[in-house]
Amino acid sequence: MGTAMTDHVVAVLAALPQEADAFFPDEGAHDARGWMPLRTIRAGAITCIVATHGIGKVHAAAATMALAERFSPRLFVSIGTAGKIGRAPGDCFWLESAVQHDYGAANPDGFLPYTAGSWPMGPATVEPFRAMPDPGVGLPHARIASGDMFVACPDQARSLHEGLAAELVDMETAAMAQACALISTPWAAIRATTDGADGASADDFAINLAAAARRAGEAAERLVGMLADGLHPSPRA
Questions:
Q1: Shortest CA distance to 189 belongs to which of 229, 134, 234?
Q2: What average pLDDT score do residues 57-79 get?
Q3: pLDDT of 135-182, one tens digit each?
Q4: Phi/psi at 201 (nearest 5 deg)?
Q5: How far is CA 49 from each of CA 97, 113, 119, 171, rounded to the nearest angstrom?
Q6: Is the pLDDT reported for residue 2 higher than 60?
Q7: DSSP codes joined into one string, 5-59
Q8: What is the mean pLDDT of the chain?
Q9: pLDDT of residue 226
Q10: Is 216 helix (H, G, I), strand (E, B) or coil?
């Protein structure tokens, strides 16, 4: 079902309810119909459609396409949490680029990552998906590696950091970024860290989820406020 919206729509995507609810907490109108709960928030001239889409790359890509069809957002923003696999200082990051760490080819010499969507043959290269320019949200920058696995292994974390120049790991951002590239729509992402992608990650994630989600939510609120106040050009300008 289509919905008539203004031209100033931002789609905010989160995998978990805790991550979605940390963005403008307790505000907005809820719509729980269908597979993807939505919340609509007015922030000045901007309408934010907050979607809780579920875990993993398929959920993130499906949500991006569904929201694009229904609302025609000018910008997609992924928010939430991530594991930290590098040594960049900080615990909440503006993601300037994203790669998919589980797209590629399994060869006798091991797994070779390729640019998501490209032919996984020939010279192995990975071209990251680039986010919109940072308007000055005040966060350190990082690259994130996304894949359909929860990384709780220091060796795997080190390999992803060294092989893909990534500081963070999650299960959604790069899939949203690829979908945005297909429909020529800008994207941004903000992630706060819960764990070190090691043997303690499952417990650390559970302990730190709420606080990390709120850090990311607050930063995303600043981004939307800057866009609403006209402090940054339209992402389609």
A1: 134
A2: 98
A3: 999 999 999 999 999 999 999 999 999 999 999 999 999 999 999 999
A4: -65, -40
A5: 23, 33, 34, 21
A6: no
A7: --S-EEEEEESSHHHHHTSSTT-SEEE--SSS-EEEEEETTEEEEEEE--SSHHH
A8: 94
A9: 94
A10: helix
Distance CA 20, CA 137 (A): 19
Q: Give per-residue burial for 161-189: e unless 16+ CB within 10 Å, then b.
A: beebebbbbbbbbbbbbbbbeeeebbbbb
Q: Which helix (DSSP H) or strand (DSSP E) does residue 117 occupy?
A: none
Nearest to 173 by CA among 212, 146, 152, 210: 146
**Alpha-carbon distance 112 to 124, whole Å?**
6
Which residue matches tokens 């939307």? 224
DSSP 87: -
Give the type of residue at 64: T
Residues ≥6 apart with Cβ < 8 Å to 144: 82, 93, 95, 97, 98, 99, 166, 167, 168, 169, 170, 173, 174, 189, 191
Helix residue ranges, H only, 74-186: 154-164, 173-182
Closest of 216, 174, 205, 201 to residue 57, by C-alpha: 174
Residue 229: pLDDT band (50, 70, 90) is: confident
3-state secondary structure of 154: helix
Q: Which residues are 110's β-sheet partners? A: 107
Residue 67 to residue 73: CA distance in whole angstroms = 7
Taking CA atoms, 34 is separated from 21, 66, 182, 196, in Å, by 18, 11, 24, 34
